[in-house]
Amino acid sequence: MKTIRHPLHAAGWTALVFCLGAVAPVAHASCGASFCTLMTDRYAQGHADIHPGWSADLRLEFIDQKQLRSGTSNIDASEVTGEEAIERHTRNRNLVTTLSYGFDSQWSVSLRIPVVDRDHVHDLLDEQTGLPGEQEQWRFTRLGDVQLMARRQFAPGDGPDSVAAFGGLKLPTGETHVTNGQGLKAERSLQPGSGTTDFVLGVAGRHVVDVANAVIGQIGVTEAMNSDHGFKPGRRLELSAGWSHAYSHSLGAVLQVNLRRRWRDSGSQAEPDNSGSVSVDLSPGITWGVGGGSTLYAYVPVPVYQKVNGIQLVPKAAFVIGVTADF
What we know:
327 residues, mainly beta, Porin, 14-stranded antiparallel beta sheet, two-stranded antiparallel ribbon, 58% strand, globular, disordered N terminus
């Protein structure tokens, strides 16, 4: 009987943690700048050891936020009252490059470099009539906040299961003073950077069920260690659990559930009433091993539960494509 090698060892398995939401620091609904933190390193693909030498991951994220939401309900723009503007959409197209270097089978470091392409439109509300008036737009492509991480991987016993601990810093490399053609500064939720240095800590685990199936879990916490010009982003908690199935040596299917909790922002330039959220995503995907240590992947994260504070823009779905490679 022909043995099918698990996609965690062949086509790869990607653990997706889809981070949604951000906060407007001025008095209207959250504009909703979204970002995916897609984990596509060798551990996420299920290898028992870290690849000594260089690895790279390149992915494109498409996140179109155009649905206004209050609490757990979608709302229409006509229902927005007592605000300065009606948010129309925030389209995020992010190019994320991650370079990793493995010192041995246990220790590695990685550098994650995001480039943010964002288009946001909102309508100002007339103070007298309360009706939509002048429209404002911001469109830009800028470097985001770079993340530097270290990973320690453990493989207890002689089996294929393993556990990893990771930690590092998100650095304030992204710009926080982007303006539009009229010289108006974009809100902090729209800026490509948060202006803060954040620490990131987490653990991940993988269990191979049989030659064709495996499960994986991960939990991580991100927290800002400082504030920037009266703004401090809220703590973020991300919990993921997933399953993958191998159809062949190359083709694999993936299904993952991601829970995200974001606490309210703080500071004089923050807007706590319109910040913070809880979201659960169902993320089906496919992986395809193309040889030479390379894997193509595609995912469609779909929110199945969203609860926001105040009024925020949220997406109905997202799309992510990418490739990983070892050198």
